[in-house]
């Protein structure tokens, strides 16, 4: 494989899904982003100084099925006709940065929360107010199934668990 699975790359994508249960809807949304075959390990949102960020339609293959994959994710799950929205925002300051995430139903409100959080995180670190980038996804369901929206950032490649 080429640099698609190169060390130091953070891929960002999103997806929506539906299913008979909330967990099935979440799994379908992960499948839409192509991270459904990994054991996702959440991390606290710090972007390492050496990272390269790539926004992609779907996450490329990142290693063995069942491997552990570090992620930052925003997840919204609802049953019924309630809209779902997920927002992942980030700032990159000279190679180091932060992710913040928010989930709910109104993408505008969620973007405001992410922007406020990233600005607070930058102030905490003594940084100037950062330019913020966003990945967002919304889904307006029309049936009573469970629905999910996810935005996900994957860190590097998946490592075998066994």
What are the defining features of this structure?
about 160 residues; four-stranded antiparallel β-sheet; 2 helices; flat
Give the fraction of residues assigned to helices.
10-25%
Structural class: alpha+beta
Radius of gyration: 16 Å
Determine the N-to-C terminus distance: 23 Å
Strand arrangement in the largest pleated sheet: 2-5-9-1-4
Count of helical segments?
A: 2
Could you describe the 3D structure shown?
There is one protein chain. The protein has 162 residues and is α+β, with helices and mostly antiparallel strands. Helices cover 19% and strands 45% of the residues. It is built from two helices and nine strands, in the order E-H-E-E-E-E-E-E-H-E-E. The strands form two sheets. The chain has a five-stranded mixed sheet. A hairpin with a 2-residue loop joins strand 6 and strand 7. The longest helix is centred in the C-terminal third of the chain and has 18 residues.
Quick overview of this protein structure:
This protein is 19% helix and 45% strand. The chain is of the alpha+beta class and 162 residues long. The strands form two sheets. A five-stranded mixed sheet has the order 2-5-9-1-4.
